[in-house]
């Protein structure tokens, strides 16, 4: 297991999005000890909005963001869209371009900067496969979005 | 140290792009044992073309691609551009949008599919920071491009 | 009430798209006195094409464009698409990116240039809110497209 | 009839996509004599994915690509997406932007480079009309994507 | 003079960016009375980064943002980029596409939401002309970006 | 020689941009007999704006557009940008993405619609190669933009 770096919120989000089940517990402990609030999940879809919705639902339910405050939802939203743009590389479209994705996502919230006034930031990572709607006809893809919250 | 998964060319490229110096040797050995040809390097720039050039130069010099064949250079090129698109999330521009990047890149070549006829594929990963041209005013960013070669 | 500038077709379109009901009559009079043909309306949607259609329908019905001539419909169409691009800032997608809009639109046709040979131009303005499909979880957005007609 | 240039895979694809029925037989013969494997067809749609699917189905059925190999399907896919990007000029959306297309497509596979090690390449061309969903309210459009295969 | 609406941070930013010198004082007073911190300025350029820099410099100098905190600079930066995307409609490029702009910009910081926990937001507006590098060969353009800060 | 179709302004522009010197005279005669005003030329560059400028300069010098009227220059400009978008497929950048182009361009002005009220339209076509700045490491590319004028 990589010893995580406390201040690398983005890389830690990618690790969480790409870690296999058996290694998750160790990673969870390290993230908690590093002061992160986080959640992760799976989503497979041909619709971009379902990926954004899955991330938002998980982040609200796990209290990574306060779903009653638009400023928190707005911060998460733009992180998610940036992650989707990285994952789709050019056009934020999946099924409309005849491709499908199978992804794990992770959302981390924490304080990656030394100056305490820099406050909290949020990272959304996507890791999985993108490709034709035929099993195995797909390659990996990654996306990461980071925002102040 | 994460035990790498042999068939995850993209995740392995991200690992190589994000691994600290002290852990590199172990990762190198695992990648070699898994049959990958690879290289990595650093590039900081406000010009997209310098990032693409740094990747291409390293990949040719380390014989990850055959620089005398356009089809290999073409495969690498489109992987690099997809990685840049993921890293920039929306507009493949750096200095023109008044931002700068400090990146590590990795190029992996190998056979990630079980069917031997699927042949070789190439992955380009970028990991580092993007932000204002002021030290510390930056956050992490990631990009990944994968292509058949 | 701002005294409108006759030759600012774009700013006048934004004014018309953002003016409250009580001030509309004064603005209408000023626009008519300045020689503009115009219309305005409301549209709320998660589909980009419904916004483009609402603009086109209103502009035809109010004879801002001649719906029997493709060159006029083409001029209006590209103005509308440019306004949508400004309103969406990056990806011309609404519901697919899990957002919704509540907009007022305005279409102005007139002669904003002193040289009479520059002929007629058309401006499409959008003003309203964009955000999550939750009431109040939204911020303002603006778009403007201008074309010769 | 233009005498085709053997090494211009892209221009030949555009010729095939834009040739009228009566001239097709002469073109077919020339393309075969030049060593190309190819197919062509028609597609009209407001959905980008239906265009990509029509190309893929025709290319598999006519054995221009081996549909059992992802690397071949991947090469064709990226050629098709590049052709769609050229045809749509900016946003790879059709109906969502309230426009429709009537296209002929062509897929050519061959060896356009003198060096035999450059191997096979694939070209996808689109030619037809794009415009409002009203007959005659449309203008021509072209797209071309080329990839190593 | 339009009586400004206190909670319309975006429209107020556009007003400030498009108001003529003689009307500025009245608008300044209204904005101050509404609790906004703001600044405005002019920039003409063929380089996107000079526009972003002009906005950032003015916002720091006028203490609309705290230039020593990355989270504030990051919030302003993304607002500026969204405004640039709206102003350029599709490609965030000016001189590279052989066009030039003459713009007024405005930055407003305030509390546009009734719920005090929604805190402060920032709006960047651009208004001016875009066109060929020939005097008078240009039309109006607008851009607006809004972010939590 | 293909007998050109009088009403296919876009395809005729592509033909003119892709025709070899020895066949040009025949094509010129056909285009003139079909009532087109046109010009063509060559441009090789890593800068998008040089391509747009080469087209504009040729079109003005050959009186395909009236360079003293912004509405004509505006119509040509948007046709050129659409052709560039088709030629670059996704990002209207050349050298910044470490690629270079060698193109022939053509500009045609005529009346492609039967209804005389549809008036004049303009087509800009680009045909040539795009690739690495190494001779032979390039493939073909095409772009087409059409506008009312
Ligand atoms: Mg950022
Ligand atoms: Mg791919
Ligand atoms: Mg324009
Ligand atoms: Mg290519
Ligand atoms: Mg927003
Ligand atoms: Mg058009």
UniProtKB/TrEMBL annotation, chains A, B, C, D, E, F:
Homohexamer. Signal peptide: none annotated. This is Hut operon positive regulatory protein. The lineage of its organism: Bacteria, Bacillati, Bacillota, Bacilli, Bacillales. Belongs to the HutP family. Gene3D superfamilies: Hut operon regulatory protein HutP (3.40.1510.10). It comes from Peribacillus deserti. Antiterminator that binds to cis-acting regulatory sequences on the mRNA in the presence of histidine, thereby suppressing transcription termination and activating the hut operon for histidine utilization. Keywords: Activator, Histidine metabolism, RNA-binding, Transcription, Transcription regulation.
């Amino acid at each position: 297991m990589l010893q995580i770096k406390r201040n690398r919120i983005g890389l830690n989000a990618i690790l969480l999005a790409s870690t296999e089940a058996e290694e998750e517990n160790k990673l969870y402990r390290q993230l908690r000890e590093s002061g992160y609030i986080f959640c992760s999940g799976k989503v497979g879809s041909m619709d971009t909005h379902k990926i954004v919705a899955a991330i938002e639902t998980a982040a609200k339910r796990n209290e990574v963001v306060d779903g009653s405050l638009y400023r928190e939802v707005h911060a998460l939203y733009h992180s998610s869209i940036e992650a989707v743009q990285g994952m789709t590389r050019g056009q934020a479209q999946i099924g409309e371009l005849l491709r499908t994705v199978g992804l794990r996502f992770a959302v981390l919230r924490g304080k990656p900067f030394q100056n305490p006034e820099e406050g909290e930031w949020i990272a959304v990572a996507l890791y999985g496969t993108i490709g034709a709607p035929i099993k195995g006809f797909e390659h990996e893809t990654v996306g990461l979005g980071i925002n102040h919250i």
